[in-house]
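Hi everyone, sorry if this is the wrong subforum. Our group has a chain we'd like a structural model of before ordering constructs, and none of us has done structure prediction before. Sequence below.
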Amino acid sequence: MDEKIQEALEKFAEESVKEYTQEETKEENTEAEITEDTSAEPEIQEEEKTEEPDIPATKEPDVPAAEPEKKSEDSLPKKKKIKPITFFKGMNKKKFLIGAGMTAAVLAFFYFLGAFYYSERLYGRTKIGEIVCGNMTVEEAENVIKEQTENYVLEIKFKDSQEEIKGQEIGYTYQSNGLVQTILREQNPFFWIGGLLSEHDYPATHTASLDEEKLREKINSFDCMKEENMVPSQDASIAFENNQFVIKDEVQGTAIDKELLTEKVKEAAENGENSFSAEKEGVYILPNVTSEDETLKKQQEVWNSCAVVTVTYLFGDQKEVLDGMRVKDWFTYDAEGNYVEDQETLMANIQAYTAELAAKYDTVGRSRVIRSTATGEDVTVEGGDYGFLIDQEEESKQLLQDIQGHVNTEREPVYARRGAVYGENDIGDTYVEVDLTGQHLWYYKDGFLLMDSDFVSGTYYNYERRTPAGSYYLKYKQRDQVLRPAPNPDGSYDYESPVDYWMPFNGGIGFHDADWRWVFGGSIYLYNGSHGCINLPVSFAGEFYNSLEAGCPIICFYR
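Answer:
Right subforum, don't worry. Here is the predicted structure as C-alpha cells:
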C-alpha cells in the first residue's frame, strides 16, 4: 500500500507541474485571440449607432435631393476608440479560476497527504551509510540496519596479504544510537516533495558491540601477525665507506604494532566500516629515522670531518685500526646534531680506548708456559712484571694529537715497558731460565744455551726471604755495590753485603756474586738461603755479568 501511495504522489506531483504549465500556456494563447477578435468590434458598434432617425408624419414636397457635399478626410470626425468587449475573456478567467481552484484543492489534498505520510517516514531518497532507507519508518530502517549488521564483514588489507573478519566470529551486535530517529525528527514533512527530488545521504554513525577478546584472537591468527613473518624496519644510518661517511636509506619492514592494529580494527568495526587498510591506518612500525632527517645529515657532515683520521696500531703481525667511524662517537653533539666543543669528554673517551688497547695487548702479569730444561716438561709461570705494557697516559696524549691533526698513520703504541717479541710467547729466544726447585739457571741467547750454573736462592721456609716466582726482566747492571736491606729505625742495617756484580730484576732482588759461599745448588736454599737474591759463584758471576743485557727476560719458577 505504501508503495502505491508513493507512486501516486510522485505521479501526481509530475502531472500537476505539467498541467500547471499547460494552463499557463493556454491562458496566454486565449488572451491573444481575444485581442485579435475585438479589433473589429468598434466598426460594428459604429454601424449600429448610425441608424436613420425617425421621420415625422408630415410629408414634404418632392424636392430633388441635393447631392451631398464631399468632405475631405480631414474634416470627417475621428472614430471614437471603443474598448474591446471582454465577455468571452471573462468567461475564460472564470473557468480558469474554477479549474485552478479544483486543481489547488486536489494538490493540497495530496500535499497534505504526503506531509502526513512523511511525518512518520524518511524521505524517499534517504541513505544511511550504504543502506537505502527511503520511505521507511524508524523501526523498518533500524531492522534493515540490524539485519545487515548481523552479516557484517570487514576486509583488512595488509602489504602482502588480505584478511577478513566476519561479525559472527567476534560477537558483532548492532547498537542503535538513535540516528534514524534523529533524521526523522529533523526532516520537515512539509518539504516532502523536495525529499523526492534530492538525495539525502547520512554517514553510518551507528555503533556495534563486539567481543574484544575474540577480536584479538582473530587478529593474532593472521599469518602476517606471527613474529617469524614480521620483518623489522631499519632506521637510516651512517656508514663508513671509502674513507667517508654516507647515509644508508631506511628500510620499511612488515612488523606491526599489534595493540594499535587491534584498537584501530575495533574502532572500524564498531563504526560499521567494511574495509580497512593497515598501511593507511599507520599500524606498521616505521623507521624512526629517515634519510631526510636533518640531524642525521648534520652528523654526517661532522663525521666526515673525522673521516681522514686513521690510526693503525702495530702489534707485531697484528693490527688494530682506529678510524673515523669510532672517533666520531667520541665527540659531543647537541640535540640538533651539531658538534659541541668538549675536550674533557673527548679525552675521557680517548683514555677509555687506550685502556681497552692495554687490556687486549698488554702481557705484563700474564701466565706463560716455558719448557723446563731440567725435565723437558712445560711449566706455567705466573706473575712478574715482564712483558708489554702500554703507557696509557702518554698514549692518550699522542692519540689526541693524531685526532686533532686529522692524521692517517701506522705506529706502535707508546709503551712503558716492552717484551722481547710480539705473540703468545713474548719471551723470545734470549732469556734466563731460573729453576728455583732445582737451584740451577740456564742462559739462552738467540735460542742457544750460552751458560748455566748452580745458585742459592732465598730461604724457602722463611716466607719473607723466599725468592718469588714470575716473569721479570733485567732492570740494569752495576759493579761494586753494597747490598743492604731497609734501614732500621736507628739507621742501622741488619746486614751489608759488598758485591762485585749487581744485576737486579725484581725490585731489590737480583743476581750477584757471593764470595762468602763455597757451595751452591742442592737443598741449601731450604733453610740457609739468601734474603731473596740469587747467589752466584764468583767465577760465573763475572762472565754472566758481561754477557747479560738489560731488558733480558728472567723466568723464575718452582716445579
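For your construct planning: The first strand starts at residue 126 and ends at 128. The chain is about 35% helix and 20% strand.
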